[in-house]
Amino acid sequence: MRYFIELSYRGTAYHGWQTQANGVSVQTTIEAALSQRFGYPMYILGSGRTDAGVHAEQQFAHIDVAEPLALSDSLIYSLNCILPEDIAIKTIFPVRPTDHARFSATARYYQYHITRYKNAFQSGLTYHFRPELDEGLMNEACQLLLRTRDFKSFSKARADVTNFLCRLDLARWERSGDRLTFHIKANRFLWGMVRTIVGTMVEIGQGRMSLDQFETIIGAQDRNAAGRAAPANGLYLVEVAYPPEVLAQRVLVG
Questions:
Q1: CA 244, 87, 101, 16 torsion: positive or negative?
Q2: Pairing state between β 55-64 and 2-9
Q3: Coil vs helix vs strand at 188
Q4: Environment class of 101 (CB within 10 Å of its CB; exposed 0-12, middle 13-18, buried 19+)
Q5: How far apart are CA 67 and CA 40, in angstroms?
Q6: DSSP code string of 203-236
Q7: Is 169 noted as a catalytic residue in this protein?
Q8: Fewer CB within 10 Å of terminal CB in the chain, N or C?
Q9: Helix or strand or coil: residue 45?
């Protein structure tokens, strides 16, 4: 049987989502907790990879098991007691054998948070950036992004993909007090794409790059043409979307 796991995590202490040899990942930490709770090795597959230091308010993974799980509030509670404080399982629910955490997803929604002033309670959770930014200009750049299909200029050079095409459904900047938030939603994202877009747009917001230059960068299809990537700590995976039938048995029991 296949189950989806809905979870959230603060990525500060982890070398990204995916299991790797050079550091502790979110995936291996969850697999260790599941294996301890059920008494045999368990492996999960996530809806997508997040880089080291990136956070997730909503992430999904799936797991295959030979026997049905006895789903209950106490099961979620026991798993969360095993997991460290910076990872939380929200729910586990059954899905069809063909439902896939990665390939069944229809969209991903990210937010990037920038704050001008230091806040002791937000350390590692936002990008502390002092210069003033013109979100009006940055939103004009968003309109150029929304007309774009090929995002090769904003992908890490070593990205293991067959194409760089993405369908953007949302791209906008929004200010609330001290916080400037970038909202971006697409059917898929390339490795390093959001952080590179943010880093390049920060140049526009400071008046150090024109909209014409930004458009030239998009057309160049060359990562070297874009700006530096923004730090990971301001980036959040906020939502992963699936068709209603995939989430039909989702119940928040935790």
A1: positive
A2: antiparallel
A3: coil
A4: buried
A5: 12
A6: HHHTTSS-HHHHHHHHHHT-GGGS-PPPPGGGEE
A7: no
A8: N
A9: strand
Determine phi and psi for 10, rounding to 5 degrees.
-95, 120
Rounded to whole angstroms, the Cα distance separating 14 from 23 reads 7
pTM over 0.85: yes
Contact 237, 53 (CB under 8 A): no
Q: How many CB atoms lie within 10 A of CB 5?
A: 21
Q: How many residues does the chain have?
A: 254
Active site residue: 51, 134, 160, 222, which one?
Answer: 51
Average pLDDT for consecutive 10-residue bins of the chain (254 residues)? 98 92 93 96 95 96 95 96 98 97 98 94 92 97 96 82 92 96 96 95 96 95 90 97 95 60
Q: Dihedral angle at the C-alpha atoms of 27, 32, 38, 39, nearest 10 degrees?
A: 140
Q: Tokens 């295959």 — which residue? A: 64
